[in-house]
Amino acid sequence: MELLLDFLARFLAQLQAPVLAFLLAGMLISAVNSKFRMPEAIYQFCVFMLLMRIGLKGGMAIRDGNIMEMLLPAVFCVILGIGIVFLGYITIARMPGIKKDDALATTGLFGAVSGSTLAVGMMTLENEAIFFEGWVPALYPFMDIPALITAIILANLYLAKQKKDNVKVEIMPIIKDCLRGMALTILVIGVLLGLLTKPERVYDTFFNPLFRGFLAVLMLTSGMEAYRRLKELKGVGHWYVGYAFLGPLTHGMLGFGLGYIAHVLVGLSPGGVIMLAIIAASNSDISGPPTVRAGIPSANPSVYHGTSTGLGTVIVIALYVPLFLALGEMVFGL
């Protein structure tokens, strides 16, 4: 009961938060068929600013931190990324009327990580003055890449079996394609700069102060895109709507559970546990879709993009970020 009351209080607060307000405003702009369009260059710059800030902070934290403390959470992220795809393979992919390549493309995105949701989670914890290790956001690729690789391999093996072809799936091109994705490239470069150089001054005077403003612009743009994708999703089946609600909740709870084990074994902070849950619950809405489109060309973008961008991101930001924050408060007495 206490968890429910805390969640409801945080959910109401989240509705008034600028992040969700801008996301809903973007959806409203699309709903009324406004002619307003965010220039692509501005959107790309906002993504760069957010992910570079996350990467720089993560790199600086890794430089000053204990590598052994990071090892177990990184392994857990790999397990989560692969496990989420296999979980989807035995659930949503087996529902009546569901094409397995569509389902695997979708679960690949839900096993991967949303840069925007990651940024929202960080800002939420910072607003609540809840400490989390600066290197936790740098776990992004440890979940993102394994999930996308697993989904693409399973989908191609399935399609080859259907066609009775002896198709060999090359893993290295998939890894390279993931690493060349916009979001992951920026994040990895930011981590390397934070790790190998001393960017504290530019971080403190430029990237960090502008973080919230650029996140608001990104949420506005994401809301416009989400509404468009949501309209596409209406014609492809109700199973994906259920998955968009239940999938992130299940994945986030798995992330919270593994985070708690890391808390006991290597001292991961309560804030780090909450962040791991948010990362696990998120679904790729920036870098993942192009990788899936190239790796599983037979999959319907209206399905996987609509489920991820149209529903998943909105649901996680509105519902599950406050839920895992409330759960963390209950478990750790924050």
Characterise the protein shown here.
There is one protein chain. The protein has 334 residues and is mainly alpha-helical. The chain has a single domain, classed as Na+/H+ antiporter like fold (Up-down Bundle). It contains 15 helices and no strands. The chain is globular and about 55 Å long. The mean pLDDT is 85.
Largest sheet: none
Strand content: under 5%
Count the domains.
Answer: 1
Number of strands: 0
Q: Please give the count of helices.
A: 15
Q: What coarse outline follows from CA principal-axis ratios?
A: globular
Mean pLDDT: 85
CATH topology: Na+/H+ antiporter like fold
Instruction: Summarize the amount of helix as a percent range.
Output: over 70%
> Which CATH class?
Mainly Alpha
Distance between the termini: 17 Å
What is the topological layout?
Blueprint: H1 2-16, H2 18-31, H3 40-64, H4 67-89, H5 100-111, H6 115-127, H7 140-163, H8 171-180, H9 182-196, H10 200-207, H11 211-233, H12 239-266, H13 270-281, H14 288-295, H15 301-332
Helix pairs in contact: 1-15, 2-11, 3-9, 3-11, 4-5, 4-7, 4-12, 5-7, 5-15, 6-11, 6-13, 6-15, 7-8, 7-14, 11-15, 12-13, 12-15, 13-15
